[in-house]
Amino acid sequence: AAKAMDVLGNKEARVWVSMVKAMVPEKACQIIDQAIQIHGATGISQWSPLSEMYASTRTLRFADGPDEVHHMVVGRHELAQH
Length: 82
Description:
It comes from Antricoccus suffuscus. By secondary structure, the protein is an all-alpha fold.
């Protein structure tokens, strides 16, 4: 996304930025959720940072705009290509 902004400019790189803003936090939540599952009850206990990591990552998904908005930007771009 950063390279696209440098090469294409901000307007043309918008779809790449939306892809990153949607995909990275979603994937991070999935990975942390799997780690919590692996650790069982310890994964959500006070002795593990995983529950706090999940809460922070999930909050980030809202702070950067709802996922659906980013998915819509990418979807619109894909439909325009075909």
